[in-house]
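Narrative summary of target 7.
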Amino acid sequence: MNTKPPVIYNLDDLPRPPARMIGLLLLLVPLLVLLWTSFYTVEAESEGVVLRFGKYLKTVEPGLHFKIPLGVDDVTVLPTRRQLKLEFGFYTPGYADPRQASNFQKEERSMVTGDLNAALVEWVVQYRIDEPRNYLFEVRNPSQTLRDLSEAAMREMIGDRTVDEVITIGRQDIEISVLARLQELSKRYQLGLRIDQVQLKNVNPPSEVQASFNEVNRAQQDRENAINIANGDYNEAVPRARGQADQAIRGAEGYRFKRVNEAEGDVALFNAMFAEYVKAPEITRSRIYLETMGEVIPQLGPKIIIDDSMRQLLPILPLGQTPGVTR
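Modeled conformation, tokenized:
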């Protein structure tokens, strides 16, 4: 196999660039570096904090800005218009913010309630960077400080309540109390943060007693269900009974008014007749007799009324066998 011998070049034989070009390159490179480091861009959801020789100078809005290069001005960009959050006792897979979760989820969610029961509490704190200057210079690590304050506030509120309150009816009150506490502490320590919301995610008893708590919850739900059914029956039966009672009372009052009016009418009629009777007793007695007989006789049917002295009304009408004959 034939191989060609390597070609050897002498560096002295290569063409050399002129000295002017080398000087131009030495001049352009620093200029390009200075130009490249003399401007910066702040994203739309952020603000830039400008430091000059390490001292705070100003806070700039989003956009393109210029600075003094060579380390004179230094810019720290903070996401002041973005909603940030801290997760306690759990973490969301794929989170981008390294401050969002810690490596001690088990320790964070393990708490003791006021009645000395254990509970597993998971919660989220949502916040924003409100004052960039305080966020950078007043506290060494504001995000970690907020995490420590959040855990302390939550343990304080959980320790003041029973396990039933923590798991069932006291969740909203705990969220409001922890939020107010964190807002107070953030302002006191000048963290430069605004706490927007505290939300309890999962509150459960330890796995060893989970079954017993589930039985208690089911019993409470059955109790509430029975109470609701009883209240429904009460709300159905009581109005019906009250309606029937009101109807009976109104019927009785109507009957009372009718009887009273009839009695008053009879009394008025009797008084009127008595007044006439006092004026003319015989005439009034006769008139009353005739009026009464006029009402009674038509109801007797076909009758023949004769005197005892009459023995025979007609020859063809035997009095002893004639029906409807009154002596």
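The chain has four domains: 17-47+59-74, 84-205, 210-279, 281-326.
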